[in-house]
Amino acid sequence: MKILFLGDVMGRAGRRALVENLPRLREEWRLDFVVVNGENATGGMGLSGAHAKLLLEAGADCLTLGDHAFDQKDMLQFIETEPRVLRPLNYAKGAPGLGHRVFQDRRGRKVLVTQVLGQVFMKRAFDDPFSAVDQVLRAHPLGGAVQAVLVDIHCEATSEKMGMGHFCDGRASVVVGSHTHVPTADAQILPGGTAFQSDAGMCGDYNSVIGMEKSEPMRRFVTGMPKARFTPALEEATLSGLYVETDDKTGRATRLRMIRLGGRLEQAGP
Q1: Strand partners of residue 228
Q2: In which domain, by residue range, is 56 found?
Q3: Known active-site residue 68
Q4: How many domains does the chain have?
Q5: Is residue 28 a part of any domain in this protein?
Q6: CATH number of the domain encompassing residue 130
Q7: What would the pLDDT profile of 224-250 be if each residue is shown by its tens digit?
C-alpha cells in the first residue's frame, strides 16, 4: 500500500498548495491512501467545515486535527456529520467526533487512522496518550483486522514523539509527528517495521515563523510585547510530509521518503 501523510496545512497558502498538487500526486505516485493534518488550515487556527470539504475534495481520505481542533466553532457540529475528520483520541471526554476510525482504500484494504495529543510542554493536560493508543492498537491488530495503521502524534517534544514511535513499533505501519511545523531529518523504519518521523513539517510558507508572517512573532521575541494578531504567511507553500510503502500481509513499512514539494524546501518525490 502506498500511503502519504501531509503535515499541518497552514492557512491559505497551505490550502492552495494542497488543492493545486494533491490530485496530480495521487495519480502520478499511485497513492492508495492520503492523510492530511488540517488543524491550522483556517487562518492558522483550527479547521472550518468549508475548508475541510475543500481538502477532502482535493484528494485527502482522512483529515486529522490537533490541539486547535475546535477553534473554528462550526467544527463542533461538522465533525459529527463527516467521519473522515478525526479529532485527537485523548482530547476530552465528551468531545464530539471520533479519535480513530477504520477506513477502506480504493481496493478495499482496511486502514486504521488515529491521532493522539502529547503531554510534554503542551498548554493543557491531556489524558495519557500511550494508554489511549495502546487500547486502539490492541483492538485492531496489524496484519489481521487491518492492513495498515497510521498514528499521528501531535505534540511539542521530539522525545515524546520518539517514545510513541517505539511504543507502537511493530503494531503500526506509520507513526508520524505533527504540530511543530518544522520537518525533522530522522525518517526511518524502526526495528519492528514501523515507519517513523518525529515531525512531518507543515504545508505552508517557510518564509515565516512556523507559518506565521514574520513581523509580529519577531516583535514579540524582541520586545516581549504584542502589537497585532498573528496572521499566516502567504507566499508559495511547501508541501511537507512522509511517503510510506507497506506490505499488505504484515502491514509493516518496506520503504519511506520525506516529501518536500514546492516553495523553499523542494526536493524530489518518491
Answers
A1: none
A2: 2-261
A3: yes
A4: 1
A5: yes
A6: 3.60.21.10
A7: 998 888 999 999 999 999 999 999 999
Which cell numbers hold the place of 36?
A: 492530511
> Is residue 220 domain-resident?
yes
**pLDDT classification of 38: cutoffs 50, 70, 90:** very high
CA dist 40 and 169 (Å) reads 28
HEC letters along the chain? CEEEEECEEEHHHHHHHHHHHHHHHHHHCCCCEEEEECCECCCCCCCCHHHHHHHHHCCCCEEECCCCCCCCCCHHHHHHHCCCEECCCCCCCCCCCECEEEEECCCCCEEEEEEEECCCCCCCCCCCHHHHHHHHHHHCCECCCECEEEEEEECCCHHHHHHHHHHHECCECEEEEECCCCCCCCCEECCCCCEEECCCCEEECCCCECCECCHHHHHHHHHCCCCCCCCECCCCCEEEEEEEEECCCCCCEEEEEEEEECCCCCCCCC
Q: Show the cell assigned to 197.
A: 518521523
Under 8 Å CB-to-CB from 134, ≥6 apart: which residues?
167
Which residue from 67, 33, 52, 75 is spatially nearest to 174, judged by alpha carbons? Answer: 33
**Cα 72 to the chain's mean position, in Å?**
18
| pTM score of the predicted model | 0.95
Write out pLDDT tens, residues 136-156. 999 999 999 999 999 999 999
Residue found under cell 515507519: 195
CB atoms closer than 10 angstroms to residue 222 = 8
- Out of 51, 68, 100, 179, the active site residue is 68
Q: In degrees to the nearest 10, what's the CA dihedral of 226, 228, 230, 232?
A: -150
